[in-house]
Amino acid sequence: MPIKETAEKLERYQERLRTGKAEKIRPKHVEKILEKLTSKETEITAELTETTKQGKRDRLEHKLATVRELIEKARWLASQV
């Protein structure tokens, strides 16, 4: 699942939590998203260490920052569910 789709799913879960529909969120679903994000973080970090082109490094660093932000959101959501 691409990062964009994972971020959208996470946002939908957070919206459910804000509207009081948290009982519809299953903790294992949040854990699955968290696993995907940490896997993606590891993958990007490995690719970043191998990359020498500055433009690609910049894109990967931006992606990595986005993934880390999503991981923090997922951890917060997991603690709320």
In short:
The protein is mostly helical.
Descriptive overview:
This protein has one domain. 83% of the residues lie in helices and 0% in strands. It is built from three helices and no strands. Helix 1 packs antiparallel against helix 2 and helix 1 packs parallel to helix 3.
Sum up the structure in keywords.
81 residues; mainly alpha; 3 helices; 83% helix
Q: Detail the poorly predicted runs.
A: none
Average pLDDT for all residues:
89
**Share of helix, binned:** over 70%
Shape estimate: elongated
Determine the N-to-C terminus distance. Answer: 23 Å
Q: What does the radius of gyration come to?
A: 14 Å
| Biggest sheet features | none
Secondary structure: elements and pairs:
Blueprint: H1 3-18, H2 27-50, H3 54-80
Helix pairs in contact: 1-2, 1-3, 2-3
